[in-house]
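FAQ

Q: What does a record look like?
A: Structure on top, sequence underneath. For example:
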């Protein structure tokens, strides 16, 4: 039986990271519950203190069956390289210069949203490498443009 999954990010600023990843992936920030016009109104009604209102956030796909991505505030910062990361499939099916041009355009778009560039790996058919760009989200989590 196939299981549904949710991807969870530990972070310092769930709202900021959710907004970044929603733009990066073409998702949307999860809307507030029915009957509320904003998350702030819902959290106020639920009795959540103001200092706890940015402790969690989530994003949902605009269409299709893709995982929900959840962001939760944790007290500690990121200290080492991620052991698991996302590959954002921007250039599937493209090769060579066409692939790297598409990856560069997306890298620039994401840098404009707050990501930073780590490094670029060039295509090398002899090593079965098609080329990719490694980036970091606004809190330093590594991901690849593939």
């Amino acid at each position: 039986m196939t299981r549904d999954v949710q991807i969870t990010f530990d972070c310092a600023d769930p709202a900021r990271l959710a907004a970044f990843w929603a733009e990066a992936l073409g998702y949307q920030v999860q809307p507030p519950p029915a009957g509320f016009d904003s998350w702030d109104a819902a959290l106020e009604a639920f009795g959540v203190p103001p200092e706890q209102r940015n402790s969690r956030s989530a994003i949902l796909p605009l269409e299709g069956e893709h995982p929900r991505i959840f962001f939760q505030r944790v007290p500690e910062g990121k200290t080492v390289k991620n052991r698991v990361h996302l590959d954002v499939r921007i250039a599937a099916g493209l090769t060579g210069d066409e692939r790297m041009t598409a990856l560069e355009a997306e890298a620039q778009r994401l840098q404009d949203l707050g990501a930073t560039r780590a490094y670029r790996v060039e295509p090398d058919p002899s090593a079965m490498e098609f080329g990719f760009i490694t980036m970091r989200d606004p809190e330093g989590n590594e991901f690849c443009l593939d």
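Q: Is there anything notable about this one?
A: The chain has two domains: 6-73, 86-145.
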